[in-house]
Amino acid sequence: MSGNALEILKTVYGYDAFRGPQARIVEHVIAGNNAFVLMPTGGGKSLCYQIPALARPGMGLIVSPLLALMADQVAALRQAGVRAAALNSDLPPEERRALWEAIETGGLDLLYVAPETLLRGGVLERLSRTRLSLIAIDEAHCLSQWGHDFRPSYRQLDVLAREFPTTPRMALTATADAPTRAEILSHMGIAESDAFIAGFDRPNIRYAIAEKDNPRAQLKEFLRRHEGESGIVYCLSKRKTDETAVWLRSEGYDALAYHAGMDKAEKEANQLRFQHGEAVIMVATIAFGMGIDKPDVRFVAHLDLPGSLEAYYQETGRAGRDGLPSDTLMLYGHEDIALRSRFIEESDAPEQRKRTERQKLDSLLGLAETAGCRRQVLLSYFGDHCEPCGNCDTCLEPPQLFDGTIAAQKALSCIYRTGERFGQAYVVDVLLGVENDRIAQFGHDKISTFGIGTEHDSRLWRAILRQLIALRLVDVDHAGHGGLSIAEAGRDFLREKPDLMLRVPPPPRARRGKAAGGRASGGSAQQSAVPEADRALFQMLRQKRMEIARLQNVPPYVIFHDKTLIELAAARPGSRSEMARVPGVGEAKLDRYGPAFLSVIAEHAE
Questions:
Q1: Where in this chain does the record put each HRDC domain (predicted)?
Q2: Per-residue pLDDT tens for 476-523?
Q3: Domains of the chain and any CATH numbers
């Protein structure tokens, strides 16, 4: 490993050693080689291009998808003493001229740019006259047509290989299955031998998935264990996003909305408040999130089924980027499956694309309905693996299973006898023998399946039907009426009558413990990472950090991450040299903030 790289790691970033494959990647790129890097969020992906860019002669060019992400990273780098800037269309003419002068005179270490800006007339030509240390394409999954965040402008980045043939190229992502990885390598002209796959596991994240019962009550119970912490709540529609944010505010939470239908200025203001706050909840559609650099997001909740396993992994991965304990919760019901299926069938995509999307939905439903370790199912989708994790709801409270063969036969028969056109609630009522005008009107109180399911209650029948839909034994009407019909696999099941084990949904009160995604012992995720003896000092350090951040109008985490504050609270340094040994304290930050934080520690010791 280059001594120069280790020196940069220590003096700029405040760390003594690289993690995982970082050292190999950094050394590989410093030597002038291309690299594809797949590393889980929070794994230190940014250092893999920032350190080679600082170690090699010239300026590093970083292609990034969002202005907010670029601004965040530039602010953090400047705090560490790195000469970084972002080139974008929002810059006033005066600032743009000054930036180009810095670029052309060697006054920058790192330049961030969005693909649309980079490909605009004249930008590449001007950059070609500048010595580049490397070119890094961040969020590289955006260039894959199979990726969930596909952006057409990313497809045009292959021009970089032609314009800068001798400059090392890097493509980095935290989310890419095998087809997406192959497409990135091919499109960017990066050899398979230059690929570094660091795995997908995020062991600090606790995964939990539950049937929608009373979604607001379930969310409220989940949030009860995250008081004073930041998080994201994802909703499928703009209307639900707005309504959920209003409801959370009425419950006393500092909740903001974010979706594509909002005014640009309002969206930007809300994102800024979220990034600068320490107990803000962002309620959002998927319009919010890609590239969120906030490390102290302690929870992510989905009130609706995400679009795919890649989307679920990416969205839940916004929690716990700092490596501290974080929680996720996903709620879903059969309506979510029907809606996601309808999106696929009604799209203008070619049949091959629809087939791929159906397979992706099946994989997501497999995760939702598994009785085994959720982390194992999630990682296996990406070609990774782990032992049962002990940190997901199904590991912590294994679901009860029952022989659902007869129940499935009854449900399928009832769907058939009622004409394969009624929704879940109606089918359940017929199975339970409910006498009402609608059932009498259609004469379904006279059919053989009326009342044959009284051994189960309505809640279990809903769970059974939901699992039959997930197993593709039952189809849902994609025209939007929600009618159930028997799929081809369901007809095979009725003919062959194989054994079928199904999950018993936990009773509502059972979700109040670990299965709800929280910690049964109480206390926030952040508190659980801080020893009790250090908590008072940790809170004092957080207050000082917020005070400094507000004066500078920057997010608190660009001063120091929570992890660094936890280390400071534990080590309690009494001098500059002692503080320099704390991970995350580089020279520039030591010079700038050392006296203020040492003063807080000394005050606490009195």
A1: 531-606
A2: 775 556 789 999 999 999 999 999 999 888 776 544 444 444 444 445
A3: 3-197 (3.40.50.300), 205-398 (3.40.50.300), 401-505 (1.10.10.10), 530-605 (1.10.150.80)
